[in-house]
Amino acid sequence: MITNAQIRAARALLDWKQTDLAKAAKVSEMSVKNLEKGDKDPRVSTVKAVQAAFESAGIEFIEGGVRKVGGAAPPEE
Question: Domain range for residue 63?
Fold first, then answer.
């Protein structure tokens, strides 16, 4: 499972705000905030949705980090 540090790093690589990630993953902004802080035990479905949103935007999760391999712009308002 991806880590909160990887989530923050991936969002930074894409220059996405938390709202952009929430929109792309179809989860609440509060879910994104909680994932990034690592405060709560997240739902597996939420983590999978976030990971899928990043991967469709060109992020690859690698051991201990992330890298950008292509991708799309932030979701439209």
Answer: 4-68
How many separate domains does the chain show? 1
pLDDT tens across the length of the chain (77 residues) = 899 999 999 999 999 999 999 999 999 999 999 999 987 888 999 999 999 999 999 999 999 899 999 766 666 65
The whole-model pTM stands at 0.87
DSSP 6-73: HHHHHHHHHT--HHHHHHHHTS-HHHHHHHHHT-S---HHHHHHHHHHHHHTTEEEETTEEEE-S--P
